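RECORD TYPE: inverse folding
INPUT: structure tokens
STRUCTURE:
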């Protein structure tokens, strides 16, 4: 997979017009986009069809988290859209993810069914307090990744800090999709567990999700090219392509 196929730009905008404006500006620089809750709801789903009409690949990030039947039905909806990847929350559990992976494979075997482990906006202290646990985020993410794999799903969303341990535990073909990616020149915003694009590739991230460093940049094309440049450096150093 080349650098361009690994960069997923998060289209977090309140209107479809703003999203279209950015996609036009970025042109051929970017070929994969993420449509999350904000864009999907504000565009009433139109963003997915718009992007696929341009030949762009779409990660539908609606992070389903509910009882098994409800999540499975929502996932079947996702798998029927023009998307190459969609996600649920691993915290929904084994039964939920098993029913999602089984049903989605019948409808669209090519759609990657992914589970979010520990959100990249969490720190270790927050997780310890919230879950009343002594386990670190890395331990939780690795455990949830194992449950995700055993449930027949294709991969996880995790921070780059957990990616190599997850690859070691779940195998190299188990996908790691990593937000919390920040070049040195970009602000962290609300992300806690961040890493540069180059280091993220070296740590085994398959896909890097990058939003604000590109979408809010004064020159988004230049920002995307800088991120792609770092991804290429990482791939060259890791000798993968
Ligand atoms: O599932 C996601 O995509 C996701 C999971 C996670 O743990 N952290 C996370 O930031 N994301 C998404 O990744 C994108 C990151 O955007 P920026 O922080 O602007 O680069 C946002 O659209 C988030 O919704």
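DESIGNED SEQUENCE:
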């Amino acid at each position: 997979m080349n650098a361009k196929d690994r960069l997923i730009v998060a289209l977090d905008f309140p209107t479809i017009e703003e999203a279209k404006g950015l996609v036009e500006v970025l042109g051929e620089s970017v070929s994969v986009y993420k449509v999350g809750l904000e864009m999907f709801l504000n565009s009433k789903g139109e963003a997915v069809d718009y992007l696929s009409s341009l030949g762009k690949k779409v990660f539908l990030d609606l992070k389903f988290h509910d009882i098994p039947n409800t999540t499975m039905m929502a996932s079947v909806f996702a798998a029927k859209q023009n998307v190459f990847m969609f996600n649920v929350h691993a915290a929904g559990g084994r039964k939920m993810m098993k029913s999602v992976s089984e049903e989605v494979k019948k409808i669209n075997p090519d759609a990657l069914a992914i589970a979010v482990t520990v959100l990249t906006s969490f720190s270790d202290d927050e997780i310890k307090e919230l879950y009343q646990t002594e386990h670190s985020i890395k331990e939780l993410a690795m455990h949830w990744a194992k449950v995700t794999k055993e449930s027949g799903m294709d991969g996880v969303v995790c921070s780059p800090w957990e990616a190599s341990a997850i690859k070691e535990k779940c195998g190299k073909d188990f996908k790691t999709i990593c937000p919390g990616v920040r070049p040195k020149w970009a602000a962290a915003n609300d992300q806690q567990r961040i890493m540069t694009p180059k280091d993220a590739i070296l740590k085994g991230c398959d896909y890097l999700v990058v939003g604000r460093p590109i979408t809010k940049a004064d020159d988004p094309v230049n920002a995307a090219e800088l991120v792609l440049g770092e991804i290429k450096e990482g791939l060259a150093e890791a000798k993968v392509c």
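NOTES: The chain has twelve helices and eight strands.
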